[in-house]
């Protein structure tokens, strides 16, 4: 029996052409380079499968080629090609990069709604898939049928392969939404995320009304919604915002060239000219004509005198370049930043970390001393204030779920009294360039390193939803454009 096996093995090996040996050699080199990159030599056992696929052929992967049924051969040839393509896409998307669509205006005008980006995962080091069994062409839900596109089990612990560099200040970063661990199936892609709704309505109301909110569901880290923002605060840095200027460790930071703020604009001319909006890159939905009654106009004119006589009052996000252009063309009679006129309008009620941030605003954030961003190995003293800031990092991101603070202000970690805590991961503070219309770290806090996906490199193509396909619907000037021009 043994001799028959070895004779058969020798004949199978000898039957391969030189070209097949060359292909097998190239694939083997790539495979072992990948194993070394992964840092897990147990994976090298999979090389035996490659050996059989290319050389020995004991597993009948290509049984269909010998079928006498022409239909079987035709159908299976397509199945074979599709399976190989899906496997290739799986590895490219997991370890090299993938496409990503900009769904909102939070980074305008650096990145526009409708941009399709190529996100490079190798720069910071690709994250090994935590839910390895998943359909490679979708994120967390299958199209049409709406079921999960992944299996919760088996799951892998967080592990990131070696990258080219760390995240730097000013990088635009794609990451999984940190507050997206618990989602409502009917509102998963809405700005009204679960924890915000809990603050508004309470857990009981949400749990008792599935008709409105949907099912409450948990998402693994790598299956949470993808967000894209700019890294403005790095691990170990202290961040605060004063009058819209970000300070890191007490030093003011330069504003990105395409950053924009919301303005109240008094104008004698209508801004709703499609040609003007298209030229400036302003989305029609961002131009809000305000309807003030005489009493409200009287109040507004005290801080914006032109509001008393100008026929049009708008609230619109603008970059410095847009402001200059509108002034030069006579569209602006008077203007002020919205947050200067309405400094405490609404948003601060839900800023992070509540309730410490109840007196903060989007423009003046972080209090007197600012927020210290956690870094791996950094130890903080646990007080009621630091618990308010870091309890989500401790409980939700680093897995110490049996942790709390009692009525006397004593903190418990893993069920035991604790005076200090040492962080196991690096964290980042992310913000959008559309500063007044961005839901970012000012609302939901720090982004853990295990949520980092990659950085956008280029704009593949861009579509303007406000225009038809043959009337400017494709933004030709953005194709293959640098996705992070400020770096």
Verbal overview:
- The protein is of the alpha+beta class and 487 residues long.
- It is 29% helix and 20% strand.
- The chain has 14 helices and 23 strands.
- It has helices at residues 2-14, 18-38, 47-56, 70-95, 194-201, 203-207, 210-213, 274-280, 294-303, 320-328, 338-341, 384-397, 441-444, 469-473, and strands at residues 97-101, 115-120, 172-176, 182-184, 216-218, 226-233, 238-242, 245-248, 251-252, 261-267, 288-289, 312-318, 334-337, 371-372, 379-381, 404-405, 411-413, 416-417, 420-422, 427-431, 447-448, 452-462, 481-482.
- The longest helix has 26 residues, at 70-95.
- The model has no long low-confidence stretch (mean pLDDT 89).
What attributes characterize this protein structure?
487 residues; single chain; 4-stranded antiparallel beta sheet; alpha+beta; 23 strands; 8-stranded antiparallel beta sheet
Largest sheet: 8 strands, antiparallel
| Structure class | alpha+beta
Number of E-type strands: 23
Mean pLDDT: 89
Question: What distance separates the N and C termini?
Answer: 66 Å
Beta strand %: 15-25%
The helix tally amounts to: 14
Helix share bin: 25-40%
Shape: globular
User: Over all CA atoms, what is the radius of gyration?
Assistant: 28 Å
Taking pLDDT < 50 over at least 5 consecutive residues as the criterion, the unreliable ranges are none
Write a brief structural summary.
By secondary structure, this protein is α+β, with helices and mostly antiparallel strands. Helices cover 29% and strands 20% of the residues.
């Amino acid at each position: 029996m043994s001799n028959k096996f070895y004779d058969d093995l020798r004949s199978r090996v000898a039957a391969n052409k030189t070209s097949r040996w060359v292909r097998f050699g190239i694939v083997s080199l790539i495979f072992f380079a990948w194993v070394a990159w992964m840092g897990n030599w147990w994976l090298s056992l999979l090389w035996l499968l490659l050996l059989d696929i290319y050389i020995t052929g004991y597993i009948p992967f290509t049984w269909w080629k010998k079928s006498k049924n022409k239909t079987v051969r035709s159908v299976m040839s397509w199945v074979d090609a599709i399976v190989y393509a899906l496997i290739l896409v799986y590895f490219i998307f997991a370890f090299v990069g993938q496409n990503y669509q900009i769904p909102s205006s939070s980074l305008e005008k650096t990145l526009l709604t409708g941009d399709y980006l190529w996100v490079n995962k190798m720069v910071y080091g690709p994250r090994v898939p935590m839910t390895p069994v998943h359909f490679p062409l979708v994120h967390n839900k299958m199209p049409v049928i709406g079921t999960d596109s992944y299996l919760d089990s088996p799951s892998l612990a967080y592990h990131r392969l070696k990258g080219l560099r760390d995240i730097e200040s000013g990088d635009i970063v794609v990451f999984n939404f940190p507050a997206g661990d618990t989602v409502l199936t009917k509102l998963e892609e809405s700005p009204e995320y679960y924890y915000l709704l809990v603050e508004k309505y309470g857990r009981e109301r949400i749990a008792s009304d599935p008709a409105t909110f949907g099912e409450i569901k948990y998402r693994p880290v790598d299956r949470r919604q993808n967000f894209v923002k700019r890294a403005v605060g790095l691990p170990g840095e202290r961040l605060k915002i004063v009058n819209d200027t970000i300070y890191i460790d007490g030093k003011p930071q330069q504003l990105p060239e395409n950053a924009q703020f919301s303005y109240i604009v008094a104008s004698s001319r209508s801004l709703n000219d499609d040609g003007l909006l298209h030229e400036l890159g302003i989305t029609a939905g961002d131009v809000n004509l305000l309807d003030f009654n005489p009493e409200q106009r009287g109040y507004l004119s005290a801080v914006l005198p032109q509001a008393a006589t100008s026929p049009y009052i708008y609230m619109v996000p603008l970059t410095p370049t847009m402001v200059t252009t509108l002034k030069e063309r006579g569209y602006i009679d008077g203007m002020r930043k919205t947050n200067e006129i309405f400094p405490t309008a609404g948003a601060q009620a839900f800023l992070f970390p509540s309730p410490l941030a109840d007196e903060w605003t989007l423009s003046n954030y972080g209090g007197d001393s600012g927020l210290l961003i956690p870094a791996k190995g950094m130890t903080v003293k646990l007080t009621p204030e630091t618990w308010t800031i870091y309890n989500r990092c401790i409980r939700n991101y680093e897995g110490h779920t049996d942790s709390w603070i009692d009525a006397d202000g004593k903190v418990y970690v893993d069920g035991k009294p604790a005076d200090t805590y040492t962080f196991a991961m690096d964290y980042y503070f992310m913000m959008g360039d559309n500063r007044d219309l961005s839901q970012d770290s000012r609302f939901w806090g720090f982004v853990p390193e295990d949520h980092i996906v990659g950085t956008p490199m280029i704009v593949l193509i861009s579509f303007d939803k406000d225009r038809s396909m043959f009337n400017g619907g494709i933004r030709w000037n953005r194709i293959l454009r640098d996705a992070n021009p400020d770096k």
